[in-house]
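A further point concerns the way the authors explain their paired sequence and structure data. Since the whole study asks how a given chain folds, the encoding of that fold should be made plain. A single example would do more here than another paragraph of explanation. An entry of this sort, consisting of the sequence and the corresponding backbone structure tokens, reads as follows:

_____
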Amino acid sequence: MSDEIISERLWTGDYYNEGTGRSDIFDTLKEECGVFGVFGHPEAASLSYYGLHALQHRGEESAGICVSNGEEFNYHRGMGLVKEVFDRDKLMSLRGERSIGHVRYSTSGDSRLTNAQPLVFKYRDGDLAVATNGNIVNAPQIRRELEQSGSIFQTTSDTEVIAHLIARSPKDFVEAAKDALQRLVGGFAFLLMTNDKLIVASDPNGLRPLTMAKLGDAYLFSSETCAFEVVGAQSIRDILPGELLVLDGNGLHEDRYTAPQRKALCAMEYIYFSRPDSDLNGSNLHAARKRMGQMMAQESFVDADVVTGVPDSSISAAIGYAEQTGIPYELGLIKNKYTGRTFIQPSQELREQGVKMKLSAVRRVVEGKRVVMIDDSIVRGTTSRRIVNLLRDAGATEVHVRITSPPFKNPCFYGIDTPDRAELIASYKTIDEIRREINADSLEFLSPEGLIQAVGGDNASDYKGGLCMACFDNDYPTRTSFEGEEKFGCSC
């Protein structure tokens, strides 16, 4: 790359999405990670490539695929987007009938190739590859114990903990994996691969999504069902809390490593993270978000001229709000698709433009109009204020903000990158104070009951609809601190 090009580019660092943790100028919640696995297909690497491409929204900093042909591993990992990390030649070199893949978003700024997944290790029984989505809350404690007994860690990723636990166990691979998983506390979805086996496991609460499909005789696994549609696979079911699947030469074996606990799938998967064409627990995300908008309209109607949603995750809810109220839905905000979902470190001059780099208001749509702006959440409040002011600058006479989640008051310990509690505006301001802070004419949040009813799905009769809503109500389904440490974000 020439010096001239370097001087003109709009980011710093070696690649476009190099992470800066919580210093992103947009205060939206950050993605977790995504995993994709294949067992029993001759084009396992290519399927993983397309699957990871469909999961790109879950992590844009690194991508990797590890393939086994039954005798040895071949793998490739790199920093950046899936399409940048892999080309035809790299995929052609990854030969085998089983694979695991990963897209990663690091939350602490520790964005480097050594932490890119899948992590690959040599141990007494051969090769071991690990990919995960989530956060192991007690990983620092386990890591200290392992280091004190002689383990040497090669990465700063918590995912390496399970590899050391497995390697130190005298038991066979499957039993060692069960014992290791039983020691972990947190939210996680694991894919563990050796040359002859693939293990798939979900945490005891099912906090992180993981689902299974079939393509001919092959089994596929993914963080979201949208990845199955891309490769033409047929979804079968979600992996159950505490479940452990073993795939080997004798087929699929359904087992579990622990008893299931309270079902608590992350509510933000429904509200924001997952793609609208994905299904979770028998509920389509687009349909669920439309119901959130409809419920929002029933709880907090306001007379207005147009309804618009903040793209992309709030479009479905905005359509639902408009259908329920009869107020026309319009594209009042347009997203610049080329900034990336986590645009990192623009130049200082462009930083002043803030949200204008990512969103544009359609003046002819909002000028002289009373606008209902639908969004999925408010974190620090800075982006909401920018968007409200963007609509006002485009001529909106009133801006009424409706948020299709309850107030976000508490940090996540299970895989979402959230600020400290003191930085979450809803933790220390009233709704009216937030309204004034973001310069809105009115502000309302969806109630917890409304959210649960809107999500519905197979777990509607479970406690809190089978959702983890700790970020709203401080009711965490697991322990969140060990030896005085609080650990949040996605540590995979």
